[in-house]
Design brief:
36% helix; Protein-Tyrosine Phosphatase, Chain A; 3 domains; alpha/beta
Length: 445
Amino acid sequence: MEKRIAILGAGESGVGAAILAQMQGHAVFVSDLGKIKDKYKEVLSTKNIDFEEGKHTEAYILNAELVVKSPGIPDTAPLIVKLKEQGTPVISEIEFAGRYTNAKTICITGSNGKTTTTLLTYHILKSAGLNVGLAGNVGKSFAWQVAGEQHEVYVIELSSFQLDGMYEFKADVAVLLNITPDHLDRYGYQMQNYVDSKFRVLQNQTNADYFIYCADDEVIKQEMNKREIASVKVPFGLGTPANPGAGVQENRIIINLNQNQFSMSILDLSLEGKHNSYNSMAAGIASMVFQIRNEQLRESLSDFKGVEHRLERFLKVHGIEFINDSKATNVNSSWYALESVHKPIVWIVGGVDKGNDYSMLKGLVTNKVKAIVCLGKNNAKIKEAFADCVASIVETSSMEEAVKASYYLARNGDTVLLSPACASFDLFENYEDRGRQFKEQVRNL
């Protein structure tokens, strides 16, 4: 049945959805309020897909029978409100693509650690020879791959915004890493709304599916008591391992699943730090669902290369180590970063505040941070939060200024840590752009 489908947003996910929709015989119109990148324009033109940029022509969009929207567009946008009022279904690219594949899915969400865990899980399955795709917030568009590549398993990183637009989709393996306040500006500053959004990763699961979750996370624990969960529950934490489940004993990670036990020393994991023990356990359990052999799993967990812009130990200049953690776009991510550094820190922080509460960082900042370099258009909240913890707080308005200031404040043996705890959209395109600029300016020192 041919449908009129409008796609809002012409980035990776939107263009992927357009290609899949056209392939399925639908009439497609792509609309982007901003400027479309040349590489995506070229794809749309080559495939003769109608598109517009710099505006949304409402007559075309309101006339659609189905709308696939970019996760960046909030549900409160006037056009989305109009579509919903007239009863037009508005869904995410992941929901749309899921309708056209029978592949197994591992869906990973959480406030922190999603990308690392997703890439690690993908690395394990790929190294074991599975026909696996990487999608969602990382890798290529899920819809684009469903249209052209046909993998048997997809590892999908899901943000709360993507989950909000998913209704019929089901994860065969759902992974929930943690829930800490993030994006509350999109959830009416109600934590429960954000929690509900994250728990959508469980929707439509049956007793043949798996739910892998962090048993040490207070918010998840409380929420589990309120919900009936149909799938096989597999908890992980730093305590004694459950069965099924994962834990730590005598500095060894132990995973129990389906009559199998896996064990390896924490010291052999390629990713250091407490938070990465969690990420490694989650990826390990998800892989064991697919019967990955113990030797293969051990090898992949020990040779995985970390994620760019996530606690990336970049360069040493005159004995000062520079760490790029640009991907830390919320307070909890920065907590992990500060916790994992064991030398005096000059901390570069700031950007677009998403309703941040910095109080949880005060103890770490008092004990570990010798100076703060603010990098953002509005730094009042950061200065107020840490004025009594740190002797030196400097304001800068470009990455060049921030790197130079931190270099002058640091001494041989110190660490300069870019871990902004904020979104990047005031001065940068995105967190990758912020991280790349940081590395470029460090090279220029």
